[in-house]
Amino acid sequence: MLKFTAEHEWLKLEGDVATVGITQHAADQLGDLVFVELPEVGAELTKDGNAATVESVKAASDVYSPLDGEVVEVNQAIVDDPSLVNSDPQAAAWFFKLKLKNVSDIDSLMDEAAYKDLIG
């Protein structure tokens, strides 16, 4: 199940663990990424709280946690090569995996059709 936030994060749920990244739209708006900072494994994140930072040649931007949970894995590959986020933001370039505190909270996020309406 793929869900989206108004802040342009995507989330894919598998059991009680969500893989989180930024959308193609966000990657396109940022331009070429040159730096990615991810949360620490074990960090407790809160919904809409700052989870990661990305920097591009245009700007720096925060990546927010879509839901409450604990970081159980991060994608070191995008730290080593931030350009992966530009080339494959909604698959290989995921940011972190979050063990959700309450899986049913995912229902508060947008589905793909609602997200497409948001970005026009």
UniProtKB/TrEMBL annotation:
Boundaries of every Lipoyl-binding domain copy: 17-99
UniProt xrefs under PROSITE patterns: BIOTINYL_LIPOYL, LIPOYL
Binding note for cofactor: Binds 1 lipoyl cofactor covalently.
Keywords from the named record: Lipoyl
Entry GO terms, CC: cytoplasm; glycine cleavage complex
Signal peptide span: none
InterPro entries referenced in this protein's UniProt entry, alphabetically: 2-oxoA_DH_lipoyl-BS, Biotin_lipoyl, GCV_H, GCV_H/Fam206, GCV_H_sub, Single_hybrid_motif
Reported cofactor(s): (R)-lipoate
Gene Ontology terms: biological process: glycine decarboxylation via glycine cleavage system; protein lipoylation
Pfam families named among the record's database cross-references: GCV_H
Modified residues (N6-lipoyllysine): K58
Subunit field text: The glycine cleavage system is composed of four proteins: P, T, L and H.
Family listed: Belongs to the GcvH family.
Function: The glycine cleavage system catalyzes the degradation of glycine. The H protein shuttles the methylamine group of glycine from the P protein to the T protein.
Identification of the protein by name: Glycine cleavage system H protein
Species of origin: Endobacterium cereale
